[in-house]
């Protein structure tokens, strides 16, 4: 007789794990091997036992688990997978189990199973019977009345709660919170859970639960809560690789919770993402999803990423885990072991080939960076932001403009973006943009919610790069072509400008033109109900005449709140000296918005430029 410690790899809501012993007893006469005998589970505990079968064998399984409200899964059950596999060769479910005579919520499996030679892992998940994962509620009136009657029975001994419920129903208030102590009842059910497996020959031996391979290029397995991890690898030649990934994709949410992706570290191009895959069910809870495919990668450096949210991960499942919990995460494998000779470790250097960046943008953030392009070139613009389908506009976004020109040269819009992972409102712009020789401004702005470090729904997959980055398009790019300017300088075409105006301002500046000139005016301010509260005008210094004024009728929406208005006009001015004015009231201005800020808020004010 020998003693083997069992592998209990996770619980719901607690990291503590009970350590018990399994007795492997061999009866010489009957040649019966006891592979597993375990009970006394903790709520949400996941048990694993690995064993090897050396010849075709028959095993006998006796298991008691529990049903759930979902036809596709059980609250507590056992299953067997081949070692390193993702699909079960046997699973205990509603179709092959019988109701227990001890409790109608318990299900029992008691029969033989034939196994071919090989290595296997048997799991048992001790989920509580009151899991609410993926329960579908019907609004059928008769079913609803029946459900309410059951609730009333539950509250029969709690007269005050029952009276409160009946009053709520009379008042049409359907919001109900019912406190029920499941602890004692759950403990009774847990005491009935069990798993016992015996074999018919002595050549069945114990092994270790694992998910191993001799072809691994890179992997991120067993991720913890709120993890954002990357590993790098280099390929010395083009190679076809195999990707296996398991994560959490709730069907009721617009967020990807736990998932992985691959980027080219040299170009920042996304080569693969779980978010782009047609995912399959991975077993257990409906939200367990997996992707499995081959992918052709060129020679180069790559980064494999995996991100998780704050729940349902290895060692802490909040619903039944996938069939192979050891494979939770992502793995890249070579198709042939000999290909590993062309694989090496890659460590990303700081801002790998990044030319200019504004990243990790939090709430109420705005930053601009002027830069010079010394010769015509192409760059990759990589920007993450927040798009509101309600307003049809971006709340967090990036832009590029020519120095001195308020109109964007490149702008993050719905048409040039794609889903960025996480919530649907996360959008990604990733495109090559031609930049002629000249001076530019790179800018990024956010509103007061859902930004780096303060997400109000699913975060995008590339959280640390939330913002905008300019990358070289390839390794041969001459980085000296792009030079950041220490401070923003005005273009020679700008005649006068008053921008980034705050509350209670009265600002003015003068400019002179030596000949009749067509000018371009951009003015942004606050207005509603045909009246402007923050606005600008141009006055002829000699005649004191107002030659142009920002009125409500001359404006259109500036993005953000309805009261954000913008005027974009062209007029002719005679030779002479002019004074540019801007005035604001005591609220809603640059840096002190009381409603959604406009697009390009740095131009809140008035600018006059020589028209092209």
SSE blueprint:
Elements: E1 2-5, E2 7-10, E3 21-24, E4 26-27, E5 32-39, E6 45-53, E7 57-66, E8 76-82, E9 90-91, E10 98-99, E11 106-115, E12 118-126, H1 141-154, H2 159-170, H3 183-190, E13 194-199, E14 205-207, E15 216-221, E16 228-235, E17 239-248, E18 259-264, E19 270-273, E20 280-281, E21 288-297, E22 300-307, E23 329-334, E24 343-346, E25 354-359, E26 366-373, E27 377-388, E28 393-402, E29 408-411, E30 418-419, E31 426-435, E32 438-445, E33 467-471, E34 482-484, E35 494-499, E36 506-513, E37 517-528, E38 531-532, E39 535-540, E40 546-549, E41 556-557, E42 564-573, E43 576-583, E44 605-610
Antiparallel strand pairs: 1-3, 2-6, 4-5, 5-13, 6-12, 6-14, 7-11, 7-13, 8-9, 8-12, 10-11, 15-23, 16-22, 16-24, 17-21, 17-23, 18-19, 18-22, 20-21, 25-33, 26-32, 26-34, 27-28, 27-31, 27-33, 28-29, 28-32, 30-31, 35-44, 36-43, 37-38, 37-42, 37-44, 39-40, 39-43, 41-42
What's this, in brief?
The chain has 612 residues and is mostly beta strands.
Please describe what this structure looks like:
- The protein has 612 residues and is mainly β.
- It has five domains: 2-130 and 188-207, Sandwich (Jelly Rolls), CATH 2.60.120; 141-181, no CATH class; 216-346, Sandwich (Jelly Rolls), CATH 2.60.120; 354-484, Sandwich (Jelly Rolls); 494-610, Jelly Rolls.
- Helices cover 6% and strands 45% of the residues.
- The chain is built from three helices and 44 strands.
- Strands 25, 26, 27, 28, 29, 30, 31, 32, 33 and 34 form a ten-stranded antiparallel sheet that branches. Strands 2, 6, 8, 9, 12 and 14 form a six-stranded antiparallel sheet that branches.
- A hairpin with a 7-residue loop joins strand 8 (76-82) and strand 9.
- The radius of gyration is 33 Å and the shape is elongated.
- Mean pLDDT is 85; it is low at 1-5, 12-30, 131-139 and 176-181.
């Amino acid at each position: 007789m020998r003693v083997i410690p069992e592998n209990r790899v996770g619980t719901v809501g607690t990291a503590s794990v009970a350590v018990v012993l399994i007795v492997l007893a061999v009866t010489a006469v009957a040649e019966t091997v006891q592979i597993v005998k375990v009970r006394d589970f903790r709520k949400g505990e996941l048990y694993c036992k690995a064993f090897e079968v050396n010849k075709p064998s028959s095993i006998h399984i006796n298991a008691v688990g529990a049903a759930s409200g979902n036809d596709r899964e059980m609250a507590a059950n056992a299953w067997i997978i081949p070692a390193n596999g993702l699909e079960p060769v046997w699973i205990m479910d509603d179709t092959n189990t019988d109701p227990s005579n001890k409790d109608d919520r318990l299900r029992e499996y008691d029969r033989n199973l034939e196994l071919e030679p090989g290595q296997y892992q048997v799991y048992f998940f001790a989920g509580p019977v009151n899991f609410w994962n993926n329960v579908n509620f019907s609004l059928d009136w008769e079913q609803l009345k029946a459900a309410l009657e059951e609730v009333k029975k539950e509250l029969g001994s709690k007269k005050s709660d029952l009276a409160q419920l009946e009053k709520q129903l009379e008042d049409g208030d359907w919001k109900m919170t019912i406190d029920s102590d499941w602890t004692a009842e759950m403990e009774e059910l847990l005491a009935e859970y069990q798993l016992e497996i015996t074999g018919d020959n002595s050549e069945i031996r114990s092994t270790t639960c694992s998910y191993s391979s001799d072809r691994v290029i890179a992997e991120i397995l067993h991720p913890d809560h709120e993890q954002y991890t990357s590993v790098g690898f280099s390929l010395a030649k083009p190679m076809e690789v195999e990707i296996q990934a398991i994560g959490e994709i709730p069907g009721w949410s617009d967020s990807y919770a736990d998932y992985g992706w691959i980027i080219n570290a040299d170009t920042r191009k996304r080569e693969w993402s779980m978010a782009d895959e047609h995912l399959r069910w991975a077993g257990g809870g409906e939200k367990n999803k997996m992707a499995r495919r081959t992918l052709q990668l060129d020679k180069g450096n790559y980064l494999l990423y995996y991100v998780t949210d704050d729940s349902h991960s290895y060692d802490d499942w909040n619903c039944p885990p996938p069939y192979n919990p050891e494979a939770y995460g992502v793995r890249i494998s070579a198709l042939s072991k000999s290909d590993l000779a062309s694989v090496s470790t890659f460590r990303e250097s700081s801002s790998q080939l990044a030319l200019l960046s504004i990243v990790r943008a939090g709430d109420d953030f705005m930053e601009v960076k002027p830069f010079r392009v010394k010769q015509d070139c192409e760059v990759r613009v990589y920007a993450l932001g927040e798009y509101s389908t309600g307003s049809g506009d971006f709340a967090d976004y990036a832009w590029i403009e020519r120095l001195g020109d308020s109109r964007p040269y490149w702008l993050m819009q719905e048409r040039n973006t794609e889903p960025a992972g996480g919530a649907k409102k996360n959008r990604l712009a990733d495109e090559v943009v031609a930049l002629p020789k000249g001076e530019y401004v790179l800018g990024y702005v956010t509103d007061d919610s859902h930004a780096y470090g303060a997400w109000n729904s699913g975060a995008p997959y590339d959280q640390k790069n939330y913002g905008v980055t300019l990358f070289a398009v390839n390794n041969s790019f001459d980085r000296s072509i792009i030079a950041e300017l220490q401070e923003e300088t005005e273009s020679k075409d700008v005649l006068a400008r008053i921008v980034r105006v705050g509350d209670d301002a009265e600002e003015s500046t003068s400019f002179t033109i030596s000949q009749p000139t067509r000018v371009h005016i951009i003015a942004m301010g606050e207005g509603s109900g045909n009246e402007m509260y923050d606005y600008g005008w141009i006055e002829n210094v000699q005649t004191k005449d107002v030659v142009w004024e920002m009125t409500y009728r001359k404006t259109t929406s500036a993005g953000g709140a309805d009261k954000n208005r913008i005027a974009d006009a062209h007029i002719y001015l005679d030779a002479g000296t002019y004074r540019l004015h801007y005035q604001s009231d005591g609220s809603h201005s640059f840096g002190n918005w009381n409603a959604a800020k406009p697009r390009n808020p740095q131009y809140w004010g008035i600018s006059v430029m020589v028209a092209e």
